[in-house]
Design goal:
Elements (H helix, E strand, L loop, with lengths): L2 H5 L11 E2 L7 E6 L2 E12 L2 E6 L8 E8 L2 E16 L8 E10 L4 H13 L3
Antiparallel strand pairs: 1-3, 2-3, 2-5, 3-4, 4-7, 5-6, 6-7
Length: about 130
């Protein structure tokens, strides 16, 4: 085990590798939590069991979330939990002001069909 692996928190360990997207999907992905709808700025990586993405606002670790993807009449909804976050800073004029955050989301295994449908839609870049 490498030193980097030893420093990881248990919640950050992935059981399934995530894949980086070749391009951002054409559809719209939104995250809902605590009566808020947050725009997804960028999707970093994805698997049928989790995602890494940037949001336009901050969220709390442990928050339960719903992700909704829509494209050309196709709608996919999945449930998950925020397992890590990292603030995103603005470059100018306030370089230390936070603008949203990167988050890691664990997708709940209760509906694997929807999880796999979302994974396929995001990896294909379409619906």
């Amino acid at each position: 085990m490498s030193p980097k692996q030893m420093k990881m928190k248990p919640a950050e360990r992935r059981n399934v590798p995530r894949e980086a997207l070749a391009q951002q999907p054409k559809g719209v992905l939104r995250l809902y939590t605590n009566y808020r709808c947050l725009d997804v700025v960028e999707i970093r990586d994805v698997s049928p069991f989790g995602l890494g993405l940037q949001l336009n606002a901050a969220v709390d670790n442990g928050a339960r979330v719903q992700l909704r993807y829509a494209h050309q009449g196709v709608r996919i909804e999945v449930m998950g939990t925020i397992v890590w976050k990292k603030p995103v800073g603005l470059s100018e004029p306030k370089p230390f002001a936070a603008y949203g955050c990167w988050v890691g989301i664990f997708l709940h295994p209760g509906n694997l069909d929807a999880n796999f449908a979302l994974y396929r839609a995001l990896m294909d870049g379409t619906a």
